[in-house]
Amino acid sequence: MPDTAMPALSNLKFGVGQPVPRNEDPILLRGGGRYTDDLTLPGQLWCVMVRSPYAHGIIKGIDTEAAREVPGVVGVFTGADLAAGGYGPMKCVLPLKNRDGTPLRNIERPALAMDKVRFVGDPVAFVVAETKSAARDGAEAVYIDIDVLPAVTEASAAAAPEAPQLYDHIPGNTVLDFHFGDAEKIAAAFAGAAQVTRLSMRNNRVVVCAMEPRSAIGEYDAGSGRYTLHVGSQGVFGLRAQMASDILKVPADKLRILTGNVGGSFGMKASAYPEYLCLLHAAKLLGRPVKWTDERTGSFLSDQHGRDHEVVGELALDAEGRALAVRLTAFANMGAYLATVAPLMGTGNFVKNVQSNYATPLVEVNTTCVVTNTSPVSAYRGAGRPEGNYFFERLLEQAAKESGRSAIELRRINHIKEEALPFTASTGSVYDSGDFTAVLDHALEVADWDGFAARKAESAARGKLRGRGIGNFLECTAPPTKEQGEIRFEVDGTVTIITGTLDYGQGHWTPFAQVLHQTLGVPFESIRLVQGDSDLLIAGGGTGGSKSLMASGAAIIEAAQLVIEKGRAAAAHMLEAAAADIEFERDGNGLGRFTIAGTDRSIGIMELAQRVRTADNLPPELPASLDVRHVFDQAPQAYPNGCHICEVEIEPETGIAEVVRYMSVNDFGVIVNPLMVEGQAHGGIAQGIGQALYEHVAYSEEGQLLSGSYQDYCLPRASDLPSFGFVSHPSPCKTNPVGAKGCGEAGCAGSLPAVMNAVVDALSEYGITHIDMPATPERIWQAIQSARG
């Protein structure tokens, strides 16, 4: 581990490993948070978007005259207005290639559709007015003349020969024909296998139901030629780069992104949306700030959706049950436009995660990425990682049933052994740590696997089917990118951390403060966190891919070491000693002190920072402050893993499935704050249960969204969930200074297979071997009726 490694776990009250409550909770619970919609700027105008009511059609004309006459309306804008501004498009940034080596067929999306509309909700115009109600009235007065065309909403259907074509330059609606793996070797492995298991699986599309709808305010200063965008995001540094360079076509210093509190995102608020350019354009033209806040119906239509893959999985085993190869053949629905990282989930993240923690020597992924007349699809909590684990776990369970083997023994046989670490997977990932079989065995013990028969009998006595399922998982986090770690000693005695990740509900303030408190010994209660101002950043990878603590934590540790180096020099001057004789340590209260070795002469770090800042006539070689601005370079991705065990009850006469028992054992490496990590696991599990049993985006044949509100789209409620058991079985990560592995998306990775394996196990009494997500009462009931004949 690097020299800047995290100090050993301690008993410090606010140190690493302590379950410290979140600093921001008292503020948020008292209503003291500041979300984008809470802002009202002087002279502010309101914006309302005009969206297509049709999924596919040619725009013949847009009549805005009536809208301009609505009282209070100050501007109506169409794509032609934006085109005159010379702005750039939104597009995919991934350098992916087709199997023949040619680049993917990208789509340059303008903020407002001009030639065609391609999904219900596609923005074609916007109205700006003195009030929101006036803007809404103006939007309703805009008339769009659309020559309606046939629509297609399923990826496999869009790739069919006679499907409606969305773009002239994308034949067959296929933007990417992705392939990974040695097809010849894998074909040979399947040909020589003792057993081949094949399953058709659907990774259902979901709405990203963030607590806070998207909202933004655009400003423009004519004197400086500078834009400001107040917006909920997942990282202001990256969003500024996209908006300034690609869309506004201005230098980065001509745009400031400000993000306050954010009510959830799960991947959806990571990149630019059409509304943001519209607001900035109007603010520049009208000379006043312009605000837009979506309503929930608009969110269902306009926000990027998650998941949506049709997959055929195949698993080849030898006579002893060892995996020889796994192959995925998939259609990935991109929606009507390519979001910034849209193809990643069904391509690279399938590749990296389908192997999980099994020593599978060969992996092949074939994915056809297709555009359809639906809302664009992008990252959603896990972004291909939970799916990869789900596919392998369902294949393994099915293989066990087909061969009469124990699925638990199949897992043990195929697990990468601890002594084989570091292990280089066939996909290129290098697993540095873990004890996967021990985690499985621990989960079986704490979940009382052996007591299931009695519980099943008790359920049967009440007329219920009971099933149990295992969700073994390993996910490859996003690799931490360059990240800022700035430490500032303020005049008021507080210490500010500035970093480029962004808290959109996770609670970064507390664990980051714990890391700094333990490393540098500054008082925990004095530490503040600043993240959401692009003007303060020189680097920042944002939050996503379960990497924030690994990135910002490492940056904070390295910055703290630089503070200590500066402090030794300053303390030597103040204490009239040689710098080589100055030692840094924490006192009995956990506070940092600089001491002359072998003496009791010392100075605390907070006092030293204040004296350095106010001292006159310091020698020129000494620092003028202890402040440090540092950029952590990067670290490899990490590999959180674990095992979830779920039990469900099903009422056969109604098809209603209920999760009644749930346990997880997790290896997240060094856990800085166990209270918060457990909360992250709970959230991921709840979302996994939602996708597995309740959530599904449905479109009509014409492309109309049938599940466009919470009357038609079901989320799990608290009453649908049991208490979640959580146990930690850590193996510290060896490739980053914190020793952490990431935890934010792992709950989804373990819960999808655990829940669905439990549902299938319960239904196995009827000979049912597979059911797709979501396992709604209707689907379960129909499966039972079909099995009964």
Automatic annotation (TrEMBL):
Keyword rRNA processing annotated: no
Key words of the record: Molybdenum, Oxidoreductase
Name of one Pfam family that matches: MoCoBD_1
Highest taxon, organism lineage: Bacteria
Domain Aldehyde oxidase/xanthine dehydrogenase a/b hammerhead intervals: 30-150
Gene3D superfamilies from the UniProt entry: Aldehyde oxidase/xanthine dehydrogenase, a/b hammerhead, Aldehyde oxidase/xanthine dehydrogenase, molybdopterin binding domain
Transmembrane regions listed in the UniProt entry: none
GO molecular function: iron ion binding; oxidoreductase activity
Keyword Transferase: no
PANTHER family given in the database record: ALDEHYDE OXIDASE 1-RELATED, XANTHINE DEHYDROGENASE
Protein name in UniProt: Xanthine dehydrogenase family protein molybdopterin-binding subunit
Protein's organism: Siccirubricoccus deserti
Lineage, top ranks: Bacteria, Pseudomonadati, Pseudomonadota, Alphaproteobacteria, Acetobacterales
